[in-house]
Amino acid sequence: MRPGQHMPFEDVSFHAFVKHTDGSPSVEQLRDFIEVKRSIRNSQGLNFVFGVVLLAAAILILNLYDLGGWEPALFFPAFFYFALSLLAGTQAVEAEEERKKAVRALELLQAEQRGERSKHVPEGEPFVLFLRSFDAERLGETGDECTLPYNYMGRVAGIPQPSRYPGDGVYTPFNRDWVDQMEALKIVRAKLPVFMLDNLTLPEKKQRELEVACIGVVSVIAADWWEVFLDLAKRAALIVFYVEVQSGMLSREMKYVAESDTPYLLLGSSAACAALEKDLPIFLEKAVQVLPTSGWVFESDAWKGPAIEGGRDLKTVLADILDRIVTQHAARLS
């Protein structure tokens, strides 16, 4: 979005808003967005409350008074308005979620303007830089959402139960991308501190999961993300690329890292690996190892690195690689 241009915020998500501002919304634009979403939250929230009160009042009147056959004339309009108010309630919740994202972005931008940056990476301490696609990261249910259908009552009621694992069973309505990414982050974090560039469009629930897992998030705005990335990439003991889907930002990071001396490994989907083999083969050639994003690792899955006979859990494979990297990093510093 060019200076002086405006866009209606009523039906716009924060993700779309950030894209329209070329990734660098101003303080004024963020404040406008926050105010619009606050107004929607308040108005639609009131509509929802009024719908609930109206239906409750109609039910109370029907129980207390004999309306002589006029009951449907009272109940059905009240129920119809209540049904509409449910939509208003949903819109109020969504507006509040988008408002919180914008508030967080505004706080980070103001801190940036004051010369502050959240979660500085300590100097001289080994850490892992974890890189991924921001858009892909927003997809998929969180860990608690993924486990909700697995309950006894659901099975007794005959409700189709999605598989816990990709490829098992017929019903797989859940996108496991976020769950698998969090599992990979926790495996790496068990060995070394992990830092990642901040994704301002990430829902609040996912931000909390990162905090609970002790994943460091470095605040960044579009105007300076490359400089921040360069600083972290040069200092990292290891870079982990987690790629379900490729993006322009990731491609630029991959090209740079492939030409650097920093060790890196790729956790990638088969589609991502196939695309890299065609478009950026040097990245695969120089990687410490290329592994799938989740599950078990077999020799056929290891695009690069020692042969893995008989299959091993990704967790143990990653742990071995990280132990080796930590040892090598310590040897370089000594």
Textual characterization of the structure:
The structure is a single chain. With 334 residues, the protein is an alpha/beta fold. It folds into 2 domains: 14-113; 128-140 and 175-333, Rossmann fold. 54% of the residues lie in helices and 9% in strands. The protein has 13 helices and 8 strands. The protein has a 6-stranded parallel β-sheet with strand order 3-2-1-4-5-6, sandwiched between helices. A two-stranded antiparallel sheet has the order 7-8. The longest helix has 43 residues, at 71-113. It is elongated.
What is the name of the CATH architecture of the largest domain?
3-Layer(aba) Sandwich
| Low-pLDDT sequence parts | 1-6, 149-156, 163-173
Task: Kindly identify the CATH topology of the largest domain.
Answer: Rossmann fold
Overall spatial form: elongated
Question: Could you describe the largest sheet, including whether it forms a barrel?
Answer: 6 strands, parallel
* Name of the top-level CATH class of the largest domain: Alpha Beta
Which range does the strand content fall in?
5-15%
Number of strands: 8
Count of distinct structural domains = 2
- In sequence order, what are the helices and strands, one letter per element? HHHEHHHHEHEHEHEHHEEEH
| Structural class designation | alpha/beta
